[in-house]
Description:
Layout: E1 5-10, H1 22-32, E2 49-54, H2 57-77, H3 84-93, H4 98-110, H5 113-134, E3 137-138, E4 141-142, E5 145-150, H6 152-166, H7 173-182, H8 184-187, E6 208-212, H9 216-219, E7 246-251, E8 275-280, H10 291-296, H11 298-308, H12 314-325, H13 338-357, H14 362-375
Parallel strand pairs: 1-2, 1-5, 5-6, 6-7, 7-8
Antiparallel strand pairs: 3-4
Amino acid sequence: MVAPNVLFLVHGIGEHRGGWSQLPKTCLRDAASQYDCFDASPDPLEHQIQFVEIRYDDIFDLILSRFQGLTEQFKRLDPGLVPNLLSKVNDILSKPDSVAARYAGDVLLYQFKLVSTTVLLRVMQTITDTVSRIGRVHDGQVVKYGILGHSMGTTVVHDALQLLATQPMLTTDAILAELRQSIPELADAYVQNFGNNPFSDANFQFDAVYMVSNTSRLLHTTELGPYESRVRPFNLQNAQAVCRSFYNIEHQWDPVSKVKQFRLADAWSGNTDGAAQVDVDHVYQANVHALDHYLLNPKVHAAIFFQMAPAFKLQHLQQAQQRVDNGDFKRWGPGFEPAAVKQALQDKLEAKVQDALGSDKAEKLQEILKQLKQLL
């Protein structure tokens, strides 16, 4: 039996425990069950795609706890000694909205060189270990490798692939020494000697890179940004490139990717052969930014299947596009149709006005509601 191709999944900001990839994997498997090219089984992708979860959330957890501990130590000595960046992290984490605090904290922490280096070493090690274990060829068949990053994970993917393509692993000795001193719990896992870099773009290329809600222009820590780096598709003008296909996937109403937006037309001096822009506008849940919400759209999951699943051919890709064009895949999920959202908003307004005015103000209430409805 031919070994399945390999797709690395890299999460975004926020809390992601071990096994976080189960939801996007389930979403992709459910999507695959809609196409007759896959086996009719509980896992139609079992012999098509092997998913490899990459997690760095625990690194942030460890370093956050270290920072908080350092802040308390400084405060006991003299509050004025607390370094500015430590103070910023501590202030963010002390806010009552813990979700927002964690999101902002992750972004801020990634700007620390020690933190981003530790995260990137984890990602690079997972990639190199997996490719070394599975190999490039299995029973005479080439094994394809793809990587998908979501949200902040697109930045992590960009930075890791740029470093993997350009930096021999032996140059990390100084970094590893610093890690051993600062974070000994993590350092030993990265002590590997790869000699010459077998993962330079001259020796290894991903078959596909998927950037979902791309933040790489905003948050990258590499010297070269996404418009200049080697994280681009190989073509006649781009010989130094980490992949054969590049997908930039964006939702019309996802605010995360709109801050310093990655625009494919502006990238790589216009040499975009092998790259595709995938724009979606469906609404099936309030959090349109969520990875599983993106994957619902046939334009998104078909782009993954077309590159990574051997059974999914060009006709199935066209079939997926037709599902969007002809309305088989509806733009609005149940309860998110414009009329339903409008009615829910009106009901909510009516309830709030009723609470504010009291039951003895019926006439005034009706007049206010009439004016509000005219505005909606």
